[in-house]
Amino acid sequence: MAKGTLTLTMIKPYAVEHGYVGPILARINEAGFRITAMKYLQLSPRQAEAFYEVHRGKPFFERLTKFMCDGPIVAAILEKENAVDDYRSLIGATDPTKAEEGTLRKLFGASIEHNAVHGSDSDENALRESDFFFSQLERF
Ligand code: GDP
Fold this sequence. Notes:
The chain is an alpha+beta fold and 140 residues long.
């Protein structure tokens, strides 16, 4: 099978706490993504701020980075043809109230902040975010 492109996802603390890891991973598999790396970890404030560096200075930056440290997350690299765009379609709009029916954020998100999952927004960011979490030895 031809190798696809990559995207980086995080299942955020709210969704982990509510028991949505299994249902979210099942939908990721059903949608044809291959998990090439995965880990369960809790971000430190410094790590969350580094991950979301592009949002520094925005009104929601502090709440976002604090919330992302509230508990463990699942981080994973997903592979598929057209991975970034297809995963953005699977997760839906940033605000769950505006996300389409059946999307991960509609199904499992509570609010624009507690929106269940992250998905990279470009191939360039997918690589940067994958390198943030995973060494080459941790990818399969
Ligand atoms: P994404 O690419 O769809 O995740 O959206 P962004 O990159 O714009 O924002 C990153 C994350 O910040 C989102 O997933 C939300 O958790 C949070 N966020 C974005 N916009 C807002 C906002 O207006 N208010 C709050 N509270 N959080 C936001």
